Amino acid sequence: QVQLVESGGELVQAGGSLRLSCTASGRTFTDYTMGWFRQAPGKEREFVAAISWSGGRSDYADSVKGRFTISRDNPKNTVSLQMNSLKPEDTAVYYCAADRSGFVRSQVTLPDRYDYWGQGTQVTVSS
Q: What's the pLDDT tens digit per position in 18-51?
């Protein structure tokens, strides 16, 4: 069992930046590919970014490439999402997730692949 707790979400103006963090506990953190997803009201949960256990591989949704950066600090059991140049369409609840089956680029975008989820943190970008 893995427990994931997100933090860092808040209200920010368009063009601003936020850094989300997710802290994991309960199992060996390096066993897991980590991902960030988001869900806006009335929409399905969508992939944002993912990172392999070592941090050596990552993947991003086209909508955030060049603006968001995922990273992880394995000794601290944390994964972060640096979000720059935020847009109103980035408004959503952001979820951290853990996948124990390894980093497969064609599959890390799929919510069903992930075994554990955090409770989410709200990001609101005002125009």
A: 999 999 998 889 899 999 999 999 999 999 999 9
Between CA 30 and CA 32 the distance in angstroms is 5
What tokens appear for 17 in the block? 């930046």
For the chain, how big is the Rg over CA atoms in Å? 13
CA separation, residue 91 to residues 7, 10, 43, 69 (Å): 15, 10, 12, 17
Q: How many Å apart are CA 39 and CA 95, to the nearest integer?
A: 8
Q: Pull the structure tokens for residue 96.
A: 């951290």
Exposure string (b/e) for 21-37, b if CB count within 10 Å is 16 or more? bbbbeebebeebbbbbb
Is residue 1 helix, strand or coil? Answer: coil
Nearest 5°: CA angle at 52, between 24 and 69?
A: 85
- Between strands 68-73 and 78-83, the pairing is antiparallel
Residue 76 sits at φ, ψ, to 5 deg, of -100, 0
